[in-house]
Amino acid sequence: MTRHSTEPDFLTTARTAYDKVAVSYGDLLRDDLAGNPFDRHVLGLFADLVTGRVADVGCGTGRITGFLRGLGVDVFGVDLSPGMLDVARHDHPDVDFEVGSMLDLAVPDGSLGGVLAWYSVIHVPWEHHPAVYAEFHRVLAPGGHLLLAFHVGDVVRRLRQGYGHDIELDVYRLQPHDVVAQLVAAGFEPHTTAVREPHGGVSAPQGCVLVRKPD
Q1: Which residue from 63, 79, 124, 189 puts its CA 20 to 30 A from 133's CA?
Q2: Pairing outcome for strands 54-57 and 97-99
Q3: What residues does 159 pair with on adjacent strands?
Q4: H or E element: which one contains 147?
Q5: Residue 26 burial (CB < 10 Å; 0-12/13-18/19+)?
């Protein structure tokens, strides 16, 4: 994809990094959910709550998108990286995937029953999060649910190595109470917040926030 002249630098940086690591990322994480019962249960709760079409925003190689499809969710994937989506389409040929940005989703107002952002807002600078949450609110129908997953903390880490490649990518850690406050300000009502302690070589706790757009 050619960079749009007004595209924020962080989007270009994320696309470049994930295009580079797409194949190795897919190989490493393809079966990751099998060993993560916490993630499966959180995603199962989300699948039980949503009705209608669901967007997996920042879907990467489609591993979560495919899992939700297996639970019967009418889900499609959106990602910045054409390279990641090439892997997603290969691994999940029965799912629709499209290139797009969480800052400007190509979806009509109020048309989705759910939005998932599974470790995808972690590459968005803190100051841009209100705009992202406002966009999620725009595309959700009343009664729709939004699920976020992220690393917990107050720092930004610069990754220079990832999935066997040299990259440049910032990872922003978030505090659940700050995420909930911003989502409430965007018009959502809280449903569930959970924090899992570090595990499996991950150095930070991992948070999940589930909210609902009021009727």
Answers
A1: 63
A2: unpaired
A3: 169
A4: strand 140-151
A5: buried
Record the pTM.
0.93
DSSP state of 6: T
The CA–CA distances, whole Å, from 156 to 28, 32, 122, 132, 171 equal 24, 25, 9, 18, 5
Return the number of other C-beta atoms located less than 10 Å from residue 197's C-beta: 9
CB 146 within 8 A of CB 179: no
- Rounded to whole angstroms, the Cα distance separating 19 from 171 reads 17
How many Cβ atoms from other residues are within 10 Å of residue 146's Cβ? 27
Tokens of 28: 């490493």
CA 115, CA 2: separation in Å to the nearest integer?
Answer: 26
Residues in the chain: 215
Q: Rounded distance, CA 70 to CA 185, Å?
A: 33
Q: What are phi and psi of 108, to 5 degrees?
A: -65, 155
pLDDT tens track for 49-95: 999 999 999 999 999 999 999 999 999 999 999 999 999 999 999 99
Q: Which of 70, 3, 32 is nearest to 163 (CA)?
A: 32
